[in-house]
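ok so heres the complex, two chains, lmk if somethin looks off
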Amino acid sequence: MGETINGIDVDKLRDLLKEAERNPDLVSKINRWTARVRWLGEGFNFRSYVRNHSFLISEPSELGGPDTSPNAVEYVLSALGACYATGFVLNATKRGVRVRNLEIALEGEIDNILVFLGLSNQGHPGYRRIVAKAYIDAEADEKTIKEIWEETVRTSPVGNTLARQVEIIPEVKIVR
Amino acid sequence: MNISRLFPVTVVGSWPRPKWLLEALRRRREGAISQEEFDAIADEAVLLAVKYQEDAGVDILSDGEQRRDNFYSFIAGKVYGIELKTVAEIVDLVPDKSRFEMLLRSLDVPAYSIRNPVVTSKLRVGPRGIARDEALFLKDHTIRLIKVPLPGPYLLTRSSWVPGISDRYYQSREDLGFEYAKILREEIIALRDLGVFFIQLDEPVLTEVVYGPDQSQQTFMCAALFSRRNPREELEFAVELINETVKGVSGIKTGIHVCRGNWSRREEALLKGDYVPLMPYLAETKVDQLVLEFATPRAGDVETLKDYIGDKELGYGVVNPRTDDVESPQEIISRVNKILRFMDAKKIYLNPDCGFGTFAEAPVNTPKTAFKKLRSMRIAAEELRKLYGEK
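and the predicted structre for the whole thing:
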């Protein structure tokens, strides 16, 4: 077993990166992601199935839900935070920087939630702005930590999904 | 216990720690250095803190709390059964996670940075005592009178009781509180026998009890979020624990320190409100002295003490530890003159409002400014002694 930084085997990581450079099949596999969300038959209760995992999605009581789990827009924030955190650990490990602690606090502001509720046509019901603040304690100087953070933000898949215009293709099929 | 001179100059406890001590504190926490290696470094820092206080003319000095990470969580290293846990570790164990989120956002800190002592088994004081090791070293290195601040029983109970963890070992928060009172009483007696002149029970959390739900989110004490009940019940419980702690104790001066937080230089970030709601309860405590802040306008007017101070002494906060401006001796004298309208000169000690480095990583002043403030207090005390009869 080779050197381990941040709980990641550095040799294995290097091998993975090399493999990704030369193997189009692997790239194709990690370029495409899927999820299936199913209504649980009552109220604002849903379950998402992703590979061999699943998790609940619901609404808080203020929005008439059972408040048994985060709602969809909170998952968007969590996905962004998790993506930044993943990227930071990846980029730090690539540089040999040990991360002691990492936490990302996110806050998103919806442009106009009344559009979602069908009570207004002004603006849109998506996030207008998301603040993602990283708290980092790593074994590197401040300049290096900031460089890793900037690289992380620049290369974040979820960050880019949100910040760029992504083409969404809605389809519907009635199955009785 | 009494001191012969009028207007003794003293401190609340903490002194800004040198950078090399902060590094040593961090390395000790991570287990990179032994307790002995840490002590060797901390001893030097204590000597510096003592020298500053002696040079400024402090009559009753402390060790600057140099060995502590802050004024209460250091107890985790002294008493078995208490572990320092970060909010990140605690949050998974408790149902009400959203209150932590509000706390973290209001303080703008990550969950990994706030450490809280949590009772994780039955309590037992370790061989160094809670502060006996500190007192022994201090006694060897100064001929001045010594003050040792101790976290108060209510503060400890409120901060370290986490439902879901602590209740496996103590049936109720009350049971834990009385255990703390017993432990602290034994410690106070041991400190007295070592020659300590003054012990101060720190109970800053009492101001959190009385100042509203919004402000309560700005607590530095995450576990306290679990134990908010109605203020009257909380204050009665606090008084009961304090009185249980000092029950039967003699031969050492006892005091309680109550302030409104000392973790930020932004005055608006700290709690605000006078001592009025607290005074009926503080008056019921069987300690010799109340160590209160009055230099900051957030603490209201000193007249609020008039009907309640009774026979108690006052550790009078006359300088603000969080400002760059050094209060002049004349300003301090004016403050004292105001309180002499209803208090006996023999009952007044001069204090800063709080420590200068309550939290190791966030000192509220530099040693140079802290020194100048203490020196200003000493010059004021000398003038006051001339004015009020001491030869």
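quick notes: Residues 35-56 of chain B form the longest helix (22 residues). thats all i got rn
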